[in-house]
Amino acid sequence: MRILFGTATLIDLHTLHETLDELKSRDSDTAHSLSSRSSYIKNLDSTVNINASGTANLTNIDKNIVTQSNEHYQQVNIDLMWINIALYGQSKVFAVIRELEFALHLIQRVDELFVAIQHAIQGKLSVNLINPNT
C-alpha cells in the first residue's frame, strides 16, 4: 500500500527487489525446466519413432517368415501326399506281382499235371510224378 501512495521506504524497496529477483529466478528455473522437458519430449518422440520403425520392420520380417513357412509346409504336405500315393501304388503293384507269380506257378503245375495225364493215357509213367526222395 505504501508503494501506491508514494510512502515506501528503502527497506520496502529492498524487499520488493528481493521479491522481484526471486520471481525472476523462479521464472528462469521454470523456463529452464520447460526447456529440459521439451528437449526430453523431443528425444522421446524421436526414440518412439525409431522404435516404431524398427517394430514395423520386424513385423514385416516376421510376416515374410510366416508366409514362407506356410508355403514350405504346404509343399511338404503335397510331397507327402505324392509319396503316400506312390507307396500305395507300389504296394498294389507288389500285390499284383505276387498274384501273377502264384498264377504262373499254378499254370506250371497244371501243365505238369496235363503232361502226366497224357503220359498216363498213353500208358507211360511220367517222370514228374515220381518223387525224387523215394
In a nutshell, what does this entry contain?
The protein has 134 residues and is mostly helical. It has helices spanning 2-5, 10-121. It has one domain (2-129).
Mean pLDDT: 86
Question: Low-confidence spans: pLDDT under 50, at least 5 residues?
Answer: none
Which structural class matches the secondary elements?
mainly alpha
Please write the string of helix (H) and strand (E) elements.
Answer: HH
In this structure, how is the largest beta sheet organized? Answer: none
Helix content: over 70%
| Percentage of residues in DSSP E strands | under 5%
End-to-end Cα distance, whole Å, is 152 Å
How many domain units? Answer: 1
Helices and strands, with pairings:
Blueprint: H1 2-5, H2 10-121
Describe the structure.
- By secondary structure, this protein is an all-alpha fold.
- It has one domain (2-129).
- Helix content is 87%, strand content 0%.
Task: Please name the defining characteristics of this protein.
134 residues, mainly alpha, 2 helices
